Amino acid sequence: MNRPDIPGWGADLDRANRPAVPMERTPPRLEGVHWDDPPPQPMRVEILKSTEHLRMPPVFGTSVPPRGVSGWIRRRAFRHSENDLRHWLMLLFADRVDAVEGVVSDARRSPRVRSVAAIAGATLLGAWLVRRWP
Predict the structure, then answer these.
(1) N or C: which end of the chain has fewer CB within 10 A?
(2) Which region ranges are annotated with the description Disordered (predicted)?
């Protein structure tokens, strides 16, 4: 029997004869660290935080705060744990609602988009009525 060919053979050998010993650090790598936690990022907008995390990370995104109906759905989603399917399905649904809110917001601001939206809406309504008509 050739013992070195056995997987895991020699794991309990003397530390001086093991190849991984130089990579192991007897005092842990972070012993005697001299820096403090970084200063917290200012929270100028509402930040949604997972229930699994006790504190905010040092850096987080603030470019798109929750707003409107999609923000309401996101706030409800963050009440559930990340390992709950409801959390992720609600976030996916909130993304779709946010896209619709963006189109509606664009239609309110721009006369060109408003006219295109009116034509598209009329076309969809007409197609729906034609399909329902006996």
Answers:
(1) C
(2) 1-41
Q: Is 114 helix (H, G, I), strand (E, B) or coil?
A: helix
Give the Cα separation of 43 and 57 in Å (integer): 12
pLDDT single digits (tens) 16-42: 666 665 565 556 566 666 667 777 888
Residues in the chain: 134
Q: Does residue 8 come out as left (phi exceeding 0), alpha (psi in the -120 to 50 range) or beta?
A: left
Q: For the whole model, what pTM was predicted? A: 0.57
Number of domains in the chain: 1
5 domain-assigned: no
> What residue numbers bound the domain in which 70 lies?
64-134
Dihedral sign for Cα atoms in the order 30, 33, 37, 39: negative
Residue of 58, 90, 96, 86 whose CA lies nearest to 74:
90
Contact 70, 97 (CB under 8 A): yes
